[in-house]
Amino acid sequence: MINLPFSRRRFLGGAGAALAAPYVITSNALGGEGRPAASERITMAGIGMGGRGSGDLRGFMGHSEVQVLAVCDVYKSRQEGMKRHVDDKNKNSDCTMHTDFREVVARDDIDAVVIGTPDHWHALISIAAMKSGKDVFCEKPLTLTIKEGREMVDVARRYGRICSSGSQRVLGDYGGLARQVQKGELGQIHKCYCDPGPPPVDCNLPGEPIPDDLDWDLWLGPAPWAPYNAFRCGRAYGISRKGFRSWRDYSGGMMTDWGGHKFGGAMFALGLDETGPTEIHPPDGEEHKFLTYKFACGIEMMVGGGGPKYEKAEGNVPGLTWKPPTHLLERDYRGNGGLPGDVLHCIKTREKPFRDVEWAHRVATVCHLGNICYELNRPLKWDPVAEEFPGDDEANRMTWRPMRGPWKL
Amino acid sequence: MSAKMNLIACLIAALLLGCAVPTMADEAVDKAFDALKTYDWGTDRNVLKPLDDAVAASHGDAAARAALAKQLAAVLGTDATQAAKDYACRKLSLIASAAEVPAIAPLLTDDKLSHMARYALERMPCDEAVAAMRDALPTVKGRVKVGVINSLAVRRDAASTGALVALLKDSDAQVAGAAASALGDVGSSEAAKALSGFVAAAPDSLKLVAADAYLTCAERLVAAGKKLEALAIYKALNKPEQPKHVQNAAKRGMLAAMSAKK
Question: Which of A404, B62, B73, B239 could bond B115 through an S-S bridge, CB–CB 3.0 to 4.6 Å?
Fold first, then answer.
């Protein structure tokens, strides 16, 4: 648990178990070869070591101050694969393997975790890690439901933890256009278009034998029980019905997957990522060709047309009060090395990361609101301050999902 | 008279007589309910699409919604499969009212269906849904019990306080931890008092759970305008025996409580 600019290493302050940690006495721990000494390093663990999670962890390992101590996945084979990589990098065999993330977050010698599990686990693991004093980098999409996001923000603020979401595209791919919007170079924007792709669908695949190296109950976690099927939990891209991203129990589909990028880019550009829409309209083939979000400032965001792209107001548009958010020109990656560099810098300095959990939560909320609107297929009103649908009992019931025991936010 | 004219005449007569005329949508819903009787994992999910559509379309039509909820709840008392009952509970979670609680509640004690019963009940805003979960609490064990406690926590059920306080001494650490966490969510003065004792006595494995529950309780008390009680909690947690991040959270909470408007 890092305590402000690098007066760290809790175990030196008295955690007896950590004093016995073998890496303290290795030559590697003394620094050299361009690496800071152990007392200046950020110790990390990776949780969810599939393609994306292991890629993220490798990205962090490219920074000399990072030392990975543990990897965790519900597939034994993925633990072993990533351990080999970490041990090669650390020139030792100390990286521990875990199936259950609770073992990882309970460790005193880990400062931060990188979470790359399927979406239905993001909030629970992030929250557990922060409650144990860890900082968090959690892949996008941040959450499965709106209430998960608010709880993540609350816990991050309660414990003063750094909690950054993913999406390298918000600044990396869409940042150039965003800066033009923020400077006012594109005029007074009235509409924007973002098309992340379709919502998820319901899964009813038949059961298959569970692979020997998989803890299926832990893969399901808080989601309703269902029989194992390779296509239920696979890594296939898009709404292919061959991977977890297709299914409502585990993901918000492409709406949340690419929504984290595209809505994230647009909301950053327009300065809308500390609020939310006040109305959501499903496509009706008439007034609303696309699912449409309306913001209090008069901006309309349409789920279509590729994007993010922006359309300026022609003439005087009633109710349009939006102005270029020039103050956001200051918001940028800090440190060196893109998103991982930004997170590491903020872990050291305790500054807000570029994809801070509040902003990521607001983006994820837009994704979820769209999915709820698609499912209910009627116009919705949303209060972005109270984070509820005013007077709409049915829609409010969809802002969270009761979790299977023993899991709880 | 042509066949078409006959049909129109029949429809007009039926409408005039106030008779319900089955529509194609009604027939599709009936067919879907039939399919639900044998529905299982691996069945084509599309056979239930008319029910999905009917649930969505019933918005604003209280009678249609009540009729659908009644039919869905009836499935729970049959020998339909786990998958069918799972589906019924998902839809009931969106449209059920107090009338369906008696049909859902018995599933709370069923190891395989307890979660889906909570899936419906936890989301239902009526008091009867919470009461059903509260009533089930003494009759369930282990992971099912933890699940019920967690649902009561989500609903911040103050009426469960006594039962939750008793569960702090449960021999199952997961149950005791869940009870502590739930008391934090309830966030009342009574819950704070119980947590005060638990923070001091909790086994090592539950120390962080206890501290977090106590911090949550303090936040609830601040929101309820009970700043002094919250400050006492923060003071109690800002002690060297607590981990550094808990001490810091207590300090942060103290500052927030002092600047709170209420």
Answer: A404
Residue B161 lies in a domain: no
User: Please, which residues bridge with residue A118 across strands?
Assistant: none
Residue contact B150–A207, C-beta within 8 A: no
pLDDT in tens, A259-311: 999 999 999 999 999 999 999 999 999 999 999 999 999 999 999 999 999 99
> A187 — contact with chain B (CB < 8 Å)?
no
Proportion of chain A above pLDDT 70, given as a percent: 91
Per-residue tokens: A169: 């595209």
Last residue of a domain, one of B99, B122, B140: B140
Residue B62: give the domain boundaries: 24-140
Which residues of B are less than 8 Å from A157 in CB distance? Answer: 252
Using the structure block, give the residue that is written with the tokens 């920074």.
A63
Is the minimum CB–CB distance between A407 and chain B shorter than 8 Å? yes
Instruction: Answer yes or no: do B40 and B115 share one domain.
Output: yes
The domain A170-198+255-399 having CATH identifier 3.30.450: the answer here is no
Number of domains in chain B: 2
Quote the CA–CA distance of B39 and B33 in Å, as a whole number.
10
Name the helix (H) or strand (E) containing A310: strand A309-312
Domain match, B38 and B121 both: yes
Residues of chain B with C-beta less than 8 angstroms from the C-beta of A402: 93, 115, 118-119, 122-123, 151, 154
Annotated domain spans of chain A: 10-168, 170-198+255-399
Cβ–Cβ contact A231 with B under 8 A = no
In angstroms, the CA A269 to CA A326 distance is 10
Report chain A residues whose CB lies below 8 A from the CB of B116.
224
Which tokens go with B53? 């559509």
**Strand A279-281 relative to strand A292-294: parallel, antiparallel, unpaired?**
antiparallel
Low-confidence ranges of chain A (pLDDT < 70): 1-34
pLDDT tens figures, B38-57? 999 999 999 999 999 999 99
Q: Are A79 and A49 in contact (CB under 8 A)?
A: yes
A318 alpha carbon, distance to own chain's centre: 36
Residues in B touching A1 (Cβ below 8 Å): 243-245
pLDDT digits (tens, 9 = 90+) for A61-95: 999 999 999 999 999 999 999 999 999 999 999 99
A14 in contact with B, Cβ within 8 Å: no
Count of positions (residues) in chain B: 262
| First CA to last CA distance, chain A | 21
Mean pLDDT of chain A, nearest integer: 92
The interface predicted TM-score of the complex, written ipTM, equals 0.92
CATH architecture, domain A10-168? 3-Layer(aba) Sandwich (3.40)
Convert the pLDDT of each residue in B180-230 to its tens digit: 999 999 999 999 999 999 999 999 999 999 999 999 999 999 999 999 999
Q: Residue B79 class from Cβ within 10 Å (0-12 exposed, 13-18 middle, 19+ buried)? A: exposed
